[in-house]
Structure formats: C-alpha cells, structure tokens
Amino acid sequence: MDLSVEGKAYINGTFENCCIGIDDGKIVAVKKILKADEHFDFGNKIILPAGIDLHVHFRDPGMTHKEDFSTGSLAAVFGGISCVFDMPNTVPQTTTPGSLSDKINDCKRKSFVDFGVYAGVTNDNIKDIEKLAKKCNGFKIFLGNTTVALMFDKTNLRNVLKSISTIGKPVLFHAEDEECLIKNRSVENGLADHLRSRPAGCEELSIREIFNASQDLGSRIHVCHVSSCEGLELLKNRPSNISCGVTPHHCLLSIEKNLGTPSFYKVNPPVRTSFDKEALFNALKNGLVDILESDHAPHTRDEKAVDFDSVPCGLPGVETMYPLFLYLVKKEILSFQRLISLLCIRPAELMGIPKGRLEVGYDADFVVIDFKDVGKIRSDNLHSKCGWTPFEDWSAVFPSCIFVRGEKLIEDHEIQVNQGFGQFVGA
Ligand code: NCD
Ligand code: ZN
Ligand code: ZN
Hints:
Elements: E1 3-11, E2 14-23, E3 26-31, E4 38-49, E5 51-56, H1 69-78, E6 81-86, H2 97-110, E7 114-120, H3 129-133, E8 138-142, H4 157-165, E9 171-174, H5 178-184, H6 191-197, H7 200-214, E10 221-223, H8 229-235, E11 242-246, H9 248-252, H10 274-286, E12 291-292, H11 301-304, H12 321-330, H13 336-351, E13 366-369, E14 375-376, E15 395-396, E16 401-404, E17 407-408, E18 410-411, E19 414-415
Parallel strand pairs: 1-4, 5-6, 6-7, 7-8, 8-9, 9-10, 10-11, 11-12
Antiparallel strand pairs: 1-2, 2-3, 4-13, 13-16, 14-15, 16-17, 18-19
Helix pairs in contact: 4-7, 7-8
The structure holds N-carbamoyl-L-aspartate (NCD) and zinc ion (2 copies).
Residues 146, 174, 224-225, 268 line the site of one zinc ion (ZN).
C-alpha cells in the first residue's frame, strides 16, 4: 500500500478514529490500523471528503484577465474542492466538439484539481448533441440572458430534452425566463432595481417550463442556483429525475442587509430578500436542495466598480464555499451529514464520478480540518485572479490540507504539485 492517513474520519455518516489506506490514488482500505510505505498521522484532526463544485466559470479561454484555469483551480485547492465542472460561456463558447476538445486539452495542462466540462446548447448546435455528448460531462442551457449567455429559444426545449434523454447525461439550467426578464427590464441604479428587473416570477415560470418540457422523458435535469421561495415551492414537488442547487450567496446574503458597494453584489439570479434567503437555507438543512454550488463567476475589481447598470453580473466563490459552511457546521447551524451530502456525495452522484465518499473504491480526495482554526476570509489570502470576495471578513474554517487522488496538495500554505496535476474526469 502506497499511503495510509490516520485521523478522525467521516465514514458512512459518523466519525471514526481510523486509517485510510491508499493505492494508486484510490481508497483501498479503511481500518483501525494500517501499514503502508508512507504514513500521515493527523491525530484528532477531522478528515472529510473533499468538495465537488458543479458550477464554476473559470473564464478560460477568452476572458483570462478575470480568471484562468490555473488560478481558478488553485482557488479550488485552497477551498477544499478536488473537482470542478466548468461552464460553457467562455470566448469562444464551448458549443462545438472542437472547442470542447481544445478546452479539455488546455485545462489538462493548467488545472490543479480534477475537472469536467459542460457543452452549451444553443439554437444552432442542437443537431450536434450526440457528438458533443462524447466530449462533455453534461449540457448547459441558459433560458435567460446573463454574462456572455448562450442564446436559446425555449420553443426548442422539448426537442432538445428528448434527444439528450437517450444519451443520459445531465442538463443544467439557468432558469430565468427570457421573455419575462425583457418585460421587467429597466435601468438599474442599485440592487433593489436589479431585483425588480429579475423578479422571482421569472424563475418560477422558467422552472415550470422545464417541468412541462421534460414530462415523461426521464432526462436528468439540474436547476442551477435556485434563488427564490417561489422557485423552491415548485421544486418541492419535482420528479426524481430533477435536482437543484443553491449558491452560498443566495442562502447567506439578502438585499436588506448593508452589503457594501452594491455593484459588487450584482449577480444573476439576484440576491433577494431575507425571506428568500432563509427559505433557501432551510431547504439546505431539510434536504429539499440537492447540492451547494458556488457559481464562481469572477469579474475583476475594476470591472465591478463601474456604474451599476453596466456592471457585469457574477460573484467569485469557489474558495470560500466549503470554509464558510464548515464554520456554520462548527456553530451547529448545519449538520455534518447535510454538508457532506450537499458538497460531496450528491454532486459526485449527479456527475457519476467515484468521489465524494471515504469508502473503498473511491478516489482518495479528502480535506483535513482543525476546528480550532477559525479564520477570517480576506481577499488578500485568496487565489482567484479577480482579487475580491463578497464574504470579506466572514468567519470560516479553511482546510489545512487537501489530498487529491492520494496526493498531498498543500503543505505550509504552499501548493505542492504543478499545474496539470488535475485530470479530466472523462466524458
Ligand atoms: C455568471 C457569469 O458571470 O458567467 N453570472 C452570474 O451572474 N451568475 C453566469 C450565470 O451563471 O448566470
Ligand atoms: Zn446562471
Ligand atoms: Zn453560473
């Protein structure tokens, strides 16, 4: 056996003082005592599965002044995330087999963590879905405009879902109805205006349209970044082939709170009322929501500091998601069981990858946590190129160490592997 790691590990829903045995990057044994070529003893520190983020925009190719795959994935490492799935609204958009191959090859050279990619579905590439499916981990459809969104006419929705249903890969949705957004759009001077321009009704309508279009098809559908009580209410009665995710910003922030410079918090769908925020947080707790997803959407400080109406929408979050929620677990606001389901188990299940659990046969991806180590989030200490965070000064528990496929990636706050360590998780 190559390696054994000892500590208080989260195994099958409880903590056990044990050793995790690793060979070729996989967990091969979980026992009280194990002998291996190399041994790490983390004593009473906690070992948890590493997180998986199904929703990042690493801006590569085309907008690498905001982020690139090396900086984005480095931020993931320090945030305890061993695998990310990248969205297709890059430049060029990832909507052709060629652009998908190019992105995968480029990311194989740049990424510090394992990764997957989505193919964007537009009005123009519906005929290519089978070819795209061979290269991607899933599809993304934007039903409403947002940063560099891919145009999609909803009258095509049923047909697209039909062709994807035979392929079996998940389809992820940005669910805000475009016609509804156009109807409500006005010049925006602040967050309350942004909320009026993108009311909860547009999200609700869009989710309803997804339900209708997917009826009896069995396609695997994921509704991204649910942001409203109305959206949640609908999702309560969703069929089992539909999953949904919530972002940290939607369940931790609301517009009533003084959020600092408003333009920095402009995001789609918008940060809404405390009522929505609390409903979303409760939905994380009670299991209505499947996953937490960061929707890491970096724009530079300068880009976020212009007049509100022309500011691009999006917030960074891949590095702060797991640490923020670990702090909430420490404060007993959320259980370990829910957190690990939201950040590790369910995302891995939705993508069909052997990660997210500390069990024999799974990738040896885990984080080491010292709960005494409560820190503050400071943008100066983060690794995204964008240089800021919506959670400045929030309390958080950053992992002291992360292992990906049995390799220790952090030592004394320094990265221990080269760009290109991360692997494509396969289409
Ligand atoms: C995202 C981006 O910047 O790429 N922006 C955002 O406000 N969330 C796109 C998206 O996920 O809608
Ligand atoms: Zn979106
Ligand atoms: Zn997004």
